[in-house]
Amino acid sequence: MNAVLRELPPVLPTRQDAELARTSSRLLAACIGQGPTARVRVVDGDGEIEVPVAALRMLVDILANMAEGNAISLVPIHAELTTQQAADFLGVSRPYLVGVLEQGEIPHHKVGTHRRIFFRDLMDYRRTRMAQSQAALEALTEQAQKLGMGY
Fold first, then answer.
1. Which of 17, 30, 46, 150, CA to CA, is 20 to 30 A from 133?
2. Cα(73)–Cα(40) distance, rounded to whole angstroms?
């Protein structure tokens, strides 16, 4: 089954939420063990909840971002994005993204007449572009050092 990204408006945390998230993320991070699962006791509940440690690490990341005042969105890796959603994620215009799709740099498919991009393919493209940018930056830094430019 293909998941479509639901557009939920991002909600910025209040100052009180950010402070609570800061404290919570530190406490939770300190409690995460090395095993594959962990038990969490909810004070308002009657029992313990066993959850994957990976989920707790994600929760720590979410709380840390909230502490910094950031809004968070979770996107399933198999989600299908519209071209506008994909462009927004990459921080580019939709026409630019459509050009990238037409050049075959990002796999996509059509639903009727509309293009859709799997989030995992978008993440692969982003990782590749980041690696290329990092390599170019390292090459420029090396060149600047050889030329004695003080970098």
1. 150
2. 23
| DSSP one-letter string for 56-96 | HHHHHHHHHHHHTT-------TTEEE-HHHHHHHHTS-HHH
Q: What radius of gyration do the chain's Cα atoms show? A: 21
| Cα 114 to Cα 94: distance, rounded to the nearest angstrom | 13
- Which pair of structure tokens corresponds to residue 15? 């100052």
Average pLDDT of span 42-56: 80
Under 8 Å CB-to-CB from 125, ≥6 apart: which residues?
A: 90, 100, 105, 106
Percent of the chain with pLDDT over 70: 92
pTM as predicted: 0.65
